[in-house]
Design a protein that fits this description.
- By secondary structure, this protein is an alpha/beta fold.
- About 45% of the residues are buried.
- The protein folds into two domains: about 220 residues, Spore Coat Polysaccharide Biosynthesis Protein SpsA, Chain A (Alpha-Beta Complex), CATH 3.90.550.10; about 190 residues, Hexapeptide repeat proteins (UDP N-Acetylglucosamine Acyltransferase, domain 1, 3 Solenoid).
- The structure holds uridine-diphosphate-N-acetylglucosamine and magnesium ion.
- The site of magnesium ion has 4 residues, from loops.
Length: about 450
């Protein structure tokens, strides 16, 4: 006989006010590693293999929905119109729960480090008999968390920080915010939660005691504290970021990437870097960056939504903005900014340059101080530079403009007309030299100065 596979619904609570963040942005949208906290939680639920996801939204409902749903296609969202507590929030997803799942896993949208394993550990605990499994963790800083009250090895209640006695506040075993409930008991337990507590809220955590009152067994599992950090303030947000970064840097190095000074490199949740690439100190990766193998990202570079080909060299002090696409073996040097532009293989843009809305052919060489003048105040225009072209220093390329293959641009040019393949374009005033004029000028200036100081 094949064993019955247990079905699960994850209910993710993301409606809260997040008052303690003191922010106009809903709390669960504050990012960790460039991704809103709630999206981290949704990804963990999906990775844990739940069958359906229900997200409870309230404050900033539309934005929260847009941030979360793409990570769990088919996820449903439910509106909690008033913020009356975590039990009340779960009931907003009443309809989904009533469809009938073996397990209901309640997750909080403010625990961005949550691991799929913690979710599955809580679910696994249910298979051993209990009606409710709570994920606990030990911490030296329990302030703000609900305390797990354990008596003779059994979980008897969860007491919220504000409702704890002085003795209970010394308990360091806390509620990590993952609760697995057998589906058949979920609605009746949660539906009976009252709000007689110091905050006047309907606490989900009360179902522990209620289940015991019905002689239903409850159990606490244990997770490591890094996986369950609940974010209520910006201080905790920074702690979560630091923990996330430390883990991601380690994984990056173990995959074959050299981070010379790991603690000064910031990665995003989706940063991808090929093996044998070296990242120097103080490099920031915004969202959506892919770097190929054997590349070098030199110090103080800032990259966002861009692609860097194998063996390319970036920086120091380079800025790659959205849709920069740097070909294999290309070089982008110091104080160079590149936006929405493709640099062909082996092309070089080495110093003090802005390239925007452009296509640069393979092995082209763009001299110091070149600017693509892509914006006229109303519209953006494209610059196309052919393979092997050479743009002399301090040139302004006024787009739309095309520079042909192997063409040459004289230094200091303002190029407004297209240049054909193999042609030379110069757009600047012609130089005039006057013999002896410098000498005569010096003599005159010296005489004038002497006259002014009274020496004849
Ligand atoms: C909660 C737990 C606490 C646990 C801690 C773990 C309760 C009563 N307390 O406390 O035991 O140690 O998390 O981080 O469950 N939310 C709603 N609607 C509401 C209220 C909250 O959707 O009406 C959402 C919030 O957006 C948040 C989550 O539920 O994502 C938890 O709410 P929060 O106010 O942060 O609870 P804590 O005080 O952290
Ligand atoms: Mg919280």
């Amino acid at each position: 006989m094949t064993e019955h596979r247990r079905t699960a619904l994850a209910v993710i609570l993301a409606a809260g006010e997040g008052t303690r963040m003191k922010s106009a942005l809903p709390k669960v949208l504050h990012p960790v590693a460039g991704l809103p906290m709630v999206a981290h939680v949704v990804r963990a639920a999906v990775a844990a293999g739940v069958d359906a996801v229900a997200i409870v939204v309230g404050r900033g409902a539309e934005e929260v929905r847009n941030a979360a749903v793409p990570f769990a296609p088919g996820a449903e969202t439910y509106l909690q119109t008033e913020r009356l507590g975590t039990a009340h929030a779960v009931l907003a997803a009443h309809e989904a729960i009533a469809r009938g799942y073996d397990d209901i896993v309640v997750l909080f949208g403010d625990t961005p480090l949550l691991s799929p394993k913690a979710i599955n550990d809580a679910r696994h605990a249910l298979t051993l008999g209990p009606a409710v499994a709570v994920m606990g963790f030990h911490t030296d800083h329990p302030d703000g968390y609900g305390r797990l009250i354990v008596d003779r090895g059994e979980l008897v209640a969860i007491r919220e920080h504000k409702d704890c006695s002085a003795d209970e506040r010394r308990i360091t075993f806390c509620n990590g915010g993952v609760m697995a409930i057998k589906g058949k008991h979920a609605l009746s337990l949660i539906g009976e939660v009252g709000n007689h507590n110091s905050k006047g809220e309907y606490y989900l955590t009360d179902i522990v005691q209620m289940a015991r009152d019905r002689y239903l067994p409850v159990v606490a599992t244990e997770a490591s504290s890094e996986n369950v950090l609940g974010i209520n303030t910006r201080v905790e947000l920074a702690e979560a970021e630091a923990l996330w970064q430390a883990k991601a840097r380690r994984e990056m190095m173990l995959s074959g990437v050299t981070l010379v000074d790991p603690s000064s490199v910031f990665l995003s949740w989706d940063t991808r870097i090929g093996a044998e690439t070296t990242i120097e100190p103080h490099v920031f990766f915004g969202r959506g960056v892919t770097v190929g193998e054997g590349a070098s990202i030199h110090a103080f570079s800032h990259l966002e939504k861009c692609t860097v080909g194998a063996g390319a060299e970036i920086g120091p002090y380079a800025r790659l903005r959205p849709d920069a696409d740097i070909g294999e073996g290309a070089k982008v040097g110091n104080f160079v900014e590149i936006k929405k532009a493709r640099l062909g293989p082996g092309a070089k843009v080495n110093h003090l340059t802005y390239i925007g809305d452009a296509e640069i052919g393979a092995k082209a060489n763009i001299g110091a101080g070149t600017i693509t003048c892509n914006y006229d105040g109303y519209n953006k225009h494209r610059t196309v530079i052919g393979e092997g072209a050479f743009v002399g220093s301090n040139s302004a390329l006024v787009a739309p403009v095309t520079i042909g293959k192997n063409a040459y641009v004289g230094s200091g040019s303002v190029i407004t007309d297209d240049i054909a393949d193999d042609a030379l374009g110069i757009g600047r005033a012609r130089q005039v030299n006057k013999e002896g004029l410098a000498k005569r000028l010096r003599a005159r200036l010296a005489a004038e100065k002497a006259a002014k100081s009274g020496i004849v």
